[in-house]
């Protein structure tokens, strides 16, 4: 069989170990808290599920090398620095589980150095410079004996892991959250001894560490090393410095694979590069990786971040920019079976990561994989077959309706999906023309193709499913996914010819004038503004809150905060957006929007040609309840018809409803 992605699925041998393809599962924490030093069976099963999906190698999440290396020595993570009696059995079980699937078993090791700041300190430290001002004195105060002791801690872990039979170690040294890049960065390292000053001195600790790790690992165990190619902040690590650093490392032959990453976890604006959102381009560090390759580095390169699109990943390998692609959110959360589905030449079955940062929020599961917030290791490629096959009707062809229909059909039910429009996708049709949301477009199109090609699904497009019609269909189960309607603010002029909904701004761009006012300042408004700017419009954003994206603050850990606000504000300032916070709209006129400052009461006109309403959505719950009495044995309302929120809520409610039929 000829593969659609032959380069991505080709084997690659490094130091006697053969990777069956070029897709590496990246480190992304643990499924359950480890209650002891050893790795719990729940987590072993979790990593086993990732290996079962077809990736070439699995690695654990970050494991600290000592009690004082960060995360309280582990924070529910395995403690591989404990005695062999405590950890060896679980290491061997982990390795044997991963090997069952012809997959290599790795463990990631790290030390947070001087960068483990408390939550209150992070609240105060917003910019990279402010964070560095706190880290630098701590870094300078570390004695040479302490640094050598940290190397000994790494060695102790590596020896235990070698005895346990792991294939390799991933040493994390990047993102300014690890000691190695803290010392390598001019921004943070202000030491005056042999570990500070010139680049060679700032790299000294990493060179010493990797020499010791290689000696402990032996010649056959693989060593991967992750670093930030750039930190994207003034005074931070640059790509030129990184290339010189890699030349020093390569000359010593201690590392088998370099991991090209970037950014800083501990500064929100830079952290947006490290864990790129959907507004960033795919393969965020592609050009950094290219520069490293073109500089003559011959050690195999693994590219990190935003590589869920198989076409992009294939091009990375085919062009020789990198030898591997590393997928963390995609394989750990969105779809562990990504490699297997590519091997079967069925990329449309992949649930692609949307880079929505829902996995860093506390409100719900992965947007495309409802299992991910529960027990991923229990999820399988094939859904459990329904005991009794039934006739299921789904009303609505948006993402919730598509997910419900496909899930029910996969379980063996006969499904009829009604959609009043002549096309599927619902609100996500905006992604067809959005200049940023390629991830959503790919996911939506994949879901549509699944439903179009599924033998158990009958699509009835351009058909309004009235309660009377559904009574004639006599379904045993009815799933209603009629979505939501735009919320229309009660202000004069809101129904004017120059006023559009968000969807209208995508479907009818010819109605947009040169200067567009977004009425609303949430995440949706800001992202629409970025898209419209890219298509040639001047943008103003008006919001009642004191800041944009009021509800969109995601917290990862005490040392790392992701929020879109710093990045958006930087872009808005660069692009000349007119942002009016703390303002309420008084009237929409042909000249723009008259606003009132909520603190001072002062009124003024914000000029604009077109007003796009971004004031949220209103659930069509009354419309959904009209289907309640058609006589179906089971009745479900899913998606925005319950409460307008995010894709993950639509997907999750639809999935679990279909699993109950």
Report the sheet-strand fraction.
15-25%
Total E-strand runs: 27
CA radius of gyration = 26 Å
Structural class: alpha/beta
Major β-sheet annotation: 8 strands, parallel
The N- and C-terminal alpha carbons lie at a distance of 37 Å
Helical region count? 21
Q: Helix amount, in percent?
A: 25-40%
Q: Which stretches of 5+ consecutive residues score pLDDT under 50? A: 118-123, 556-560
Q: Identify the strand order in the major beta sheet.
A: 3-10-9-8-7-6-5-4
Q: What's the rounded overall pLDDT mean?
A: 93
Overall form: globular
Q: Which terms summarize this structure?
A:
5-stranded parallel beta sheet; alpha/beta; 661 residues
Quick take:
The protein is α/β, with parallel strands linked by helices and 661 residues long. The chain is 35% helix and 19% strand.
Topology:
Elements: E1 12-14, E2 17-19, E3 23-25, H1 41-52, E4 57-64, H2 84-99, E5 104-110, H3 119-124, H4 128-141, H5 144-164, E6 168-172, H6 179-184, H7 199-217, E7 222-228, H8 239-252, E8 257-261, H9 268-274, H10 286-294, E9 301-304, H11 310-318, E10 324-327, H12 329-334, H13 338-343, E11 391-395, H14 399-410, E12 414-419, H15 438-453, E13 457-461, H16 467-473, E14 477-480, E15 484-486, E16 499-501, H17 502-507, E17 515-519, H18 523-534, E18 538-542, E19 554-557, E20 560-562, H19 564-575, E21 578-580, E22 583-589, E23 592-597, E24 603-607, E25 610-613, E26 617-619, H20 621-625, E27 634-637, H21 647-660
Parallel strand pairs: 3-10, 4-5, 5-6, 6-7, 7-8, 8-9, 9-10, 11-12, 11-14, 12-13, 14-27, 16-25, 17-18, 17-25, 18-21
Antiparallel strand pairs: 1-2, 15-26, 19-20, 22-23, 23-24
């Amino acid at each position: 069989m000829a593969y659609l992605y032959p380069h991505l699925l080709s084997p690659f041998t490094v130091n006697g170990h053969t990777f069956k393809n070029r897709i590496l599962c990246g480190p992304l924490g643990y499924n359950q808290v480890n209650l002891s030093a050893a790795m719990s069976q729940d987590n072993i099963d979790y990593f086993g599920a990732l290996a079962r999906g077809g990736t070439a190698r699995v690695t654990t999440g970050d494991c600290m090398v000592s009690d004082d290396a960060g995360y309280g020595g582990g924070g529910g993570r395995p403690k591989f620095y404990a005695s062999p009696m405590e950890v060896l059995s679980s290491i061997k079980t982990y390795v044997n589980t991963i090997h069952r699937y012809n997959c290599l078993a790795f463990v990631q090791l790290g030390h947070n150095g001087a960068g483990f700041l408390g939550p209150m300190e992070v609240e105060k430290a917003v910019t990279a410079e402010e964070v560095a001002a706190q880290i630098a004195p701590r870094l300078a105060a570390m004695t040479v004996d302490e640094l050598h002791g940290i190397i000994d801690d790494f060695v102790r872990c590596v020896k235990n892991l070698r005895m346990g039979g792991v294939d390799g170690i991933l040493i994390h040294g990047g993102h300014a959250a690890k000691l190695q890049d803290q010392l390598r960065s001019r921004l943070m390292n202000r030491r005056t001894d042999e570990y500070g000053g010139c680049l060679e001195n700032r790299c000294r600790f990493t060179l010493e560490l990797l020499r010791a790790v290689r000696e402990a690992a032996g010649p056959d165990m693989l060593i991967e090393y992750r670093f930030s190619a750039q930190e994207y902040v003034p005074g931070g690590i640059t790509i030129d410095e990184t290339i010189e650093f890699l030349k020093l490392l390569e000359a010593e032959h201690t590392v088998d694979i370099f991991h090209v990453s970037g950014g800083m976890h501990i500064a929100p604006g830079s952290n947006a590069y490290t864990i790129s959102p959907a507004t960033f381009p795919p393969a965020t560090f592609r050009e950094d990786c290219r520069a490293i390759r073109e500089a003559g580095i011959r050690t195999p390169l693994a590219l990190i971040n935003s590589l869920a699109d198989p076409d992009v990943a294939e091009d990375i390998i085919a062009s020789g920019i990198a030898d591997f692609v590393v997928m963390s959110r995609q394989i750990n959360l969105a779809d562990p079976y990504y490699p297997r589905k590519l091997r079967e030449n069925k990329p449309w079955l992949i649930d692609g990561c949307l880079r929505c940062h829902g996995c860093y929020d506390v409100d719900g599961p992965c947007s495309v994989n409802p299992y991910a917030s529960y027990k991923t290791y229990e999820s399988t490629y094939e859904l459990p077959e329904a005991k009794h096959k039934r006739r299921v009707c789904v009303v609505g062809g948006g993402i919730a309706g598509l997910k419900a229909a496909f899930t029910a059909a996969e379980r063996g039910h006969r499904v009829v999906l009604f959609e009043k429009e002549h096309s599927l996708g619902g609100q996500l049709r905006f992604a067809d023309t959005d200049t940023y949301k390629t991830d959503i477009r790919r996911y939506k199109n994949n879901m549509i193709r699944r439903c179009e090609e599924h033998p158990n699904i009958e699509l009835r497009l351009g058909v309004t499913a009235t309660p009377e019609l559904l009574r004639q269909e006599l379904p045993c189960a009815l799933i209603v996914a009629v979505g939501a309607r735009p919320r229309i603010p009660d202000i004069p002029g809101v129904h004017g010819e120059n006023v559009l909904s968000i969807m209208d701004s995508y479907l009818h761009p010819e109605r947009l004038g040169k200067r567009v006012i977004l009425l609303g300042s949430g995440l949706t408004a800001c992202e629409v503004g970025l898209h419209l700017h890219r298509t040639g419009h001047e943008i103003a954003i008006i919001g009642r809150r004191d800041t944009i994206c009021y509800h969109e603050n995601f917290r990862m850990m005490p040392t790392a905060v992701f929020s879109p606000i710093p990045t958006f504000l930087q872009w808005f300032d660069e692009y000349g957006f007119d942002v009016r916070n703390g303002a309420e709209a008084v009237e929409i006129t042909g000249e723009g929007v008259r606003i009132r400052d909520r603190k001072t009461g002062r009124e003024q006109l914000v000029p604009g040609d077109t007003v796009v309403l971004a004031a949220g959505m209103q659930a069509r719950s009354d419309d959904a309840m009209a289907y309640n009495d058609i006589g179906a044995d089971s009745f479900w309302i899913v998606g925005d018809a319950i409460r307008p929120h995010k894709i993950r809520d639509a997907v999750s409610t639809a999935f679990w409803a279909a699993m109950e039929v």
